[in-house]
Design goal:
Number of helices: 14
Structural class: alpha/beta
CATH topology of the largest domain: Rossmann fold
CATH architecture of the largest domain: 3-Layer(aba) Sandwich
């Protein structure tokens, strides 16, 4: 590829399963990549599923909330989709015609991916599918229930010009269950503009966990382990909101942890970064984690990282050096790891310092560059 090809601006549609005002890993990923590609001189739009909520905050690229009805099994649902699918398809075609992207980049394959794949077939624009672990870590079991989505993902992988995932864990699942022939890892990133905290600064007796309060995130496992560890003078805060909030609060009460465990609710990115800067440790106790942006946030915040072994962590974490890997479903092992980190300050400090040294490798500019090179290649392969 020539230097002129690398510099030639791209027109990229980032077609996301979800976006602001919703909060989560894919929403963060798409927002950061869109901004970074825009800052690098590319024309970018975000096309996302219309869930009846729209963000009012300013964003550097256009965001289009598009209808994505799919055929339903029920008779009533069938009647609705007979009318709504053609109408939605016309809206997708109009959006395509206004922007004329060089690349259709699906971010987290759901109904958005079904419509993006249809656009590829209609206009032969290169399709890039980026899976974010949606086939592995879905609390709602959408892929287990929907044969249409399973068939559509398999077909989209076959017709795509490239496939990415944040870890080999996700790529291996796509190979095993959805017929993927080849794919590349494009990792997640972290916002380095918020600054990095000194890992040697004094820390509170505070353990943090951050994320959507859903079953896959494993916060119930962490609460059980925290109760077993019985760490004197240590508090646990869980930042986030979601469908498991009531059951988690009931669990806290039943274990007698009301004074030491708090469900904080949602906080913005700056507030989360500040709180990590206070914490001694951050725990990611997920039952399945395709990558885990929170791990990078812990490194940026100078906290010691305790990370689930169930997922893609081994791609980027060096166990015993910059984090401690543990199976969160092994309550005794997780409790012992919490005790080790909070009782052994030299261990805690060493792990935190090693993570802080590595976080600079994972800025969003690096992630955007990986996409830029991939998108440029598939555009070039597609020809004029």
């Amino acid at each position: 590829m020539s230097s002129d090809e690398r510099r030639s601006p791209l027109r990229v549609a980032l077609i996301s399963s979800s976006f602001a005002p919703h909060v989560g890993g894919v929403e963060t990923h798409v927002a950061q990549v869109a901004t970074a590609l825009h800052d690098r001189g590319h024309a970018v739009e975000v096309w996302t599923v219309d869930r009846g909520m729209w963000s009012a905050r300013a964003f550097p690229v256009p965001v289009r909330y598009l209808p994505t009805p799919l055929p339903a099994r029920s008779l009533d649902g069938l009647f609705r989709t007979v009318w709504s699918v053609p109408r939605a398809w016309r809206e997708w075609r109009r959006t395509y015609a206004r922007f004329r992207p060089d690349v259709l980049s699906v971010q987290c394959f759901g109904p958005n991916g079904v419509y993006a794949a249809a656009l590829q077939r209609a206009f032969t624009t290169p399709l890039v599918v980026s899976s974010h672990g949606e086939t592995l870590g879905d609390d709602n079991g959408v892929y287990a229930r929907s044969a249409l989505l399973r068939r559509s993902l398999r077909a989209a992988l076959a017709q795509s010009s490239a496939v990415t995932a944040p870890s080999t864990y996700v790529l291996d699942d796509l190979r095993a269950r959805f017929g993927l022939a080849d794919g590349v890892v494009v990792p997640n990133g972290v916002d380095l503009s918020l600054g990095t905290a000194d890992p040697d600064a004094p820390r509170q007796g505070l353990v943090l966990a951050i994320g959507r309060l859903g079953r896959m995130k494993g916060f119930d496992l962490l609460i059980d382990a925290f109760a077993l560890a019985a760490l004197e003078g240590v508090r646990l805060e869980i930042i986030g909101d979601g469908p498991e909030r009531v059951s988690l609060q009931q669990q806290i009460v039943s274990l007698g942890l009301v004074e030491s465990v708090t469900l904080v609710g949602e906080k913005d990115a700056t507030a989360v970064a500040q709180r990590i800067g206070d914490a001694a440790a951050v725990v990611v106790p997920s039952r399945s984690e395709s990558f885990g942006i929170v791990a990078l946030e812990a490194w940026r915040g100078g906290a010691a990282l305790i990370m689930t072994s169930r997922g893609g962590a081994t791609d980027f974490i060096r166990d015993g050096e910059d984090a401690l890997l543990v199976d969160p479903e092994d309550t005794a092992a997780l409790a012992a790891t919490l005790t080790s980190v909070m009782a052994d300050e030299p261990l805690r400090s060493r792990i935190a310092a090693a993570g802080a040294q590595r976080v600079g490798e994972y800025g969003w500019s690096r992630v955007a560059l990986d996409y830029e090179e991939l998108f440029t290649r598939v555009r070039s392969d597609a020809g004029p």
